[in-house]
Amino acid sequence: MNKEELLNELKTNCMSCQNCELGSTRHNIVFSDGNPNTAKAILIGEAPGENEDLTGTPFVGRAGKLLNEFLEKVGINREKDLYIINTVKCRPPKNRVPTNQEKEECSKYLYKQIEIINPKILIFCGATALQSFYKDKIQISKIRGQWLEITVNSKQYKAIPIFHPSYLLRNHSMEEGKPRALMLEDLKSIYKILKK
Ligand code: URA
């Protein structure tokens, strides 16, 4: 089977998943966005919000629009360069942070997506994604922008934590050293690797 067939099979399984409570309140699973054949990086967010739950596509609400603006600024093409997914595939009620049990149940889809895509790099967008792979308790602000080596299903990947765009929605300054400026720095560092 090729990548698309493998992903379609996984998505079909995910669509009927009731392994945690989120299965009973979702409108849609939010499986992915982007082209699995051209993507060199997987960007992993937290969980779908309301707009994502209604459309079935990740990062289409306010945070997604801001993410798009930042990607455009540095020349990363969302549809071609990235495969975008979330740590959990169903919306937690009132956008609460997913529980450990929800993350654990959903990790089989997450790890399988990574295995099938086999990207050059992983981008952990926000603390929830970071903590699903990097077990040391460390704040995203302390580790963002650092290149890590992460093992998923016995394979090593280069990975980088970045801020979540929701955090940037609450922090407007573009001054040097502030979150928005740091986000640009991190995306430039990602761009360099993608274009190598
Ligand atoms: N926040 C996320 O982490 N993922 C989405 O898909 C939307 C908002």
Can you put this structure into words, describing what you see?
By secondary structure, the chain is an alpha/beta fold. The chain has one domain: Uracil-DNA glycosylase-like domain (Uracil-DNA Glycosylase, subunit E, 3-Layer(aba) Sandwich), CATH 3.40.470.10. 44% of the residues lie in helices and 15% in strands. It is built from 9 helices and 6 strands; from the N terminus they run αββαααβαβααββαα. The chain has a 6-stranded mixed sheet with strand order 1-3-2-4-6-5. A hairpin with a 2-residue loop joins β5 and β6. The model has no long low-confidence stretch (mean pLDDT 97). The chain binds uracil (URA). Uracil binds next to α3.
Short overview:
By secondary structure, the protein is α/β, with parallel strands linked by helices. It contains nine helices and six strands; from the N terminus they run H-E-E-H-H-H-E-H-E-H-H-E-E-H-H. It has a six-stranded mixed β-sheet with strand order 1-3-2-4-6-5.
Features:
single chain; 196 residues; alpha/beta; Uracil-DNA Glycosylase, subunit E; 6-stranded mixed sheet; 9 helices; 6 strands; binds uracil
Principal-axis shape: globular
What level of helicity do the residues show?
Answer: 40-55%
Which structural class should the secondary elements be placed in? Answer: alpha/beta
**CATH architecture label name:** 3-Layer(aba) Sandwich
For the record, give the distance between the C-alpha atoms at the N and C termini, rounded to a whole number: 29 Å
How much of the sequence is in beta strands? 15-25%
Uncertain regions spanning at least 5 consecutive residues: none
The Rg value, from CA coordinates, equals 16 Å
Q: List the strand order in the largest sheet.
A: 1-3-2-4-6-5
The CATH homologous superfamily is termed: Uracil-DNA glycosylase-like domain
Number of helices: 9
Which ligands, by name, code or SMILES, are bound? uracil
Number of strands: 6
